[in-house]
Design brief:
The protein is α+β, with helices and mostly antiparallel strands. The protein is built from ten helices and 21 strands. A six-stranded mixed β-sheet has the order 7-8-9-3-10-11, sandwiched between helices. Strands 2-1-4-5-6 form a five-stranded antiparallel β-sheet, with helices on one face. The protein has a five-stranded antiparallel β-sheet with strand order 14-13-12-15-21. It is globular. Bound molecules: adenosine-5'-triphosphate.
């Protein structure tokens, strides 16, 4: 595990009191609004900033412990750092930039040069100078350089923030590949919920220097008290599913989970494949009786188990199913009009479901597969390098990259 339990008062008056545990593989997103302390945490882990008190440890390597008087020097922490801007050495070729990362480390070279070059698709750029690269290409080289320093932990501080949407779209599949195929924990700073949803397995939600919640993405995503941070349009529930059927004529697939079946736009995965369904609270409306003459296909019966007043005119209604829970975002006016209260039986009508094909054991929605035909290749998805470990053959996201 990655253990961070620190306090730091900055000269500006900002006070960080952060306590979080992150898994030692996959991507943990540090998520929150501007100024909440994400970069400060990254700097504390890297060692460029020192906490007032606390402890930072990655596995059994203690970076900082005020009680034990441990302050591991930066160069011995073995962290790779990727910034918003690539910060490549302008006078060196791409290859020299990459080799620099490799030369600087004394750690065992388990991440190979050729593997990194293939994984990031930068083989054709090796002889180029940084000023001739696009923003996305520069970032891929910067990621490669960080990886070749053989880090035990990769820190990424809004690595896509300086890129336009098109470049982001180009680089995201490489980050997914990295996440899926390298056994390397990544702390990933972002204030984009879309990035968090797509990339991360776990998330720490921050506000005003405090960690409000930390855990599997599915858990954090459904907590109505985080609505001000996550935003009312992205709060929701994630279910583990299995693809159980395709109806090519109707353009629909069926995915089944513990509480029933969902009909979704055709999923490019074979029957029997695992998948994840994300249902946003805003896409769930409620009916007191079994809905018959409505167009919504997916309906599930459950019992209201909680109502939380949310931002503005909205309330979050938690609906307990036989096994799991759903959340519905309705107006407070609807709560009053329908007389909704805990214990009542309701029908949840689900207007939209997003399905992805993350391997079991991950709890993030990852890439969305909204409607590709089953044989559709993965556009933008970089091919796996044969030298890389494949986490779960055949479970790669198949959708738009
Ligand atoms: N060098 C500094 N000295 C004093 N205060 C600082 C310094 N750098 C940042 N701060 C303050 O610390 C707080 C947290 O900053 P931090 O950069 O960690 O936020 P962030 O969540 O990463 O924000 P953003 O998403 O905008 O990058 C802010 O209030 C900021 O003004």
């Amino acid at each position: 595990m990655i253990e961070i339990d620190v306090t730091l008062a900055r000269s500006s008056g900002f006070c960080l009191e952060a306590n979080l545990m992150a898994p030692d593989m996959g991507i943990t997103a540090l998520f929150g609004r501007s100024g909440c302390g994400k970069t400060t945490i990254i700097q504390l882990v890297a060692g460029s900033l020192t906490p007032d008190r606390g402890r930072i440890a990655v596995g059994d390597v203690v970076f900082w412990d005020s009680q034990q008087g441990i302050n591991l020097p930066m160069e011995q922490r073995g962290v790779g750092y990727v910034f918003q801007d690539a910060r490549l050495f302008p006078h060196m070729s791409v290859e020299s930039n990459l080799r620099y990362g490799e030369r600087r480390t004394r750690r065992a070279r388990t991440i190979k040069f050729d593997t990194v070059v293939a994984m990031l698709g930068i083989g054709h750029l090796l002889k180029r100078q940084p000023h001739t690269l696009s923003g996305g290409e520069k970032q891929r080289v910067a990621i490669g350089r960080a990886l070749l320093s053989q880090p035990r932990l990769l820190l990424m501080d809004e690595p896509l923030a300086s890129l336009d949407e098109m470049r982001k779209g180009e680089i995201l599949p490489y980050l997914e590949l990295l996440r899926d195929e390298l056994k390397l924990p990544i702390l990933y700073v972002s204030h984009s919920i879309e990035e968090v949803l797509r990339l991360s397995d776990a998330v720490a939600a921050l506000s005003d220097g405090k960690v409000l919640a930390c855990g599997a993405l599915a858990d954090v995503l459904s907590r109505p008290e985080l609505l001000p941070i996550i935003g009312r349009f992205d709060l929701g529930t994630i279910f583990d599913c299995t693809v159980t059927g395709h109806d090519e004529e109707m353009g629909l697939s069926t995915v089944s989970f513990a509480d029933g079946d969902l009909r979704v736009p055709l999923v490019g995965r074979p029957v029997g494949a695992p998948a994840r369904a994300r249902i946003r609270s805003r896409d769930v409306s409620l009916s007191l009786s079994r809905p018959i003459d409505v167009s919504v296909t997916n309906r599930i019966c459950g019992t209201i188990s909680g109502i939380t007043r949310a931002e503005g005119p909205f309330s979050d209604v938690e609906v307990s199913l036989a096994h799991g829970k759903l959340h519905s975002l309705v107006t407070q006016e609807s709560v009053l009009r329908l007389g909704l209260e805990p214990g009542m039986t309701v029908w949840a009508m689900i207007k939209a479901v997003t399905v992805d094909s993350r391997p079991p054991g991950f709890s993030s929605p990852g890439a969305e597969i909204l409607n590709p035909p089953p044989s559709h290749p993965a556009p933008g998805r970089p091919p796996a390098h044969p030298a890389l470990r494949v986490v779960s053959a055949g479970t790669r996201p198949q959708g738009p990259g």
